[in-house]
Amino acid sequence: MGILKAFIVGGLICVVGQILIDKTSLTPAKILVTFVVLGVFLGAVGVYEPFSEWAGSGANVPLTGFGNLLVQGTKKALKEDGLLGAITGPLTSGAAGITGALFFGFVVSLFARSKAK
Prior knowledge:
Blueprint: H1 2-23, H2 28-44, H3 48-55, H4 57-60, H5 63-81, H6 85-111
Helix pairs in contact: 2-5, 5-6
């Protein structure tokens, strides 16, 4: 049941993004930033965490989940380190995902060739 819930929630988030691409003049980059900021806002007001626990990976994998991850890291670091935690918290909480993306992007670049259009 958890897999089905994650599939439906993640799919609905992607559908919202696709509708925004099709029906507005927003660029994909602006939509992605909007999703991250929305995740930050919903995480800051305490709404995203219960939603994330209910939806599982369907809420954690999209960019809204990344925004929530930044907020959770900031909250934790603020409690532990004070004001310095506002800077170190988001970097620490997102480090594994960012490092993974960079590493696997590099590995793929070794096997793929870019082509000029």
